[in-house]
Amino acid sequence: MEENFDALEVLARTRGKVEMDQVPIGENIFLVWGWPTAVFFLLEFVLWLVFHQQWCLWLWVGIPIVAVPLMVRLLKKDHERTHTRTHDAKVILDYWIFVGFACFVSGLVFGFSGQYDACFMPLVCLLVGIGSFITGEILRFKPKTICGLAGCVIGIGAFLFTGELWHWQLLAVALVAIIALIVPGILYNKRVRDGI
Q1: What is the C-alpha separation between 18 and 27, in angstroms, rounded?
Q2: Structure confidence by residue, pLDDT tens digits, 155-172
Q3: Which domain holds residue 56?
Q4: Given this model, what pLDDT does residue 155 score?
Q5: Does some domain include residue 6?
Q6: For residues 151-181, b (16+ Cβ closer than 10 Å) or e, as one string?
Q7: What CA dihedral angle connects 129, 27, 105 and 36, to 10 degrees?
Q8: What is the pTM of this model?
């Protein structure tokens, strides 16, 4: 009977380790992209209200300048820590790489065409919201799922800000970064630290 108990304990510990390793780049991926996105889009919003100059709308380029080196560092650290990646972790990482690339290319296209009042920022909100929802479902982390749904709702609502109100879409992106990336990232950090 003693051997059975030890085997169950080993299985439980192994399962816990696999669950902790499910997230690509540890628990920090959401914060690495969330904080710069929130800060740069809030800064864009404020500067646009003050100056109404085209250059104010290009501050978002700072997001990948700040986040990509941090992401590379975390990828290396994650590889040293686990040496393996589960299928779930690969799906999550691939989706977020796609979202980052799609947002960057779309930002350049809409930026150079001068179509800021088009659907770029609501689409960013939707992509981040959907990604947070999917990540939450894969990780079975309910706060991430709920925050992802909230991000989608904000993204749909951001489509209403057109014409003279389009600059409020900048605030919508910052809000989605806070709700769908930062808040669940902090909660997930706490979950990981507590070992739950």
Answers
A1: 14
A2: 999 999 988 889 999 999
A3: 21-194
A4: 95
A5: no
A6: bbebbeebeebeeeebbebbbbbbbbbbbbb
A7: 90
A8: 0.83
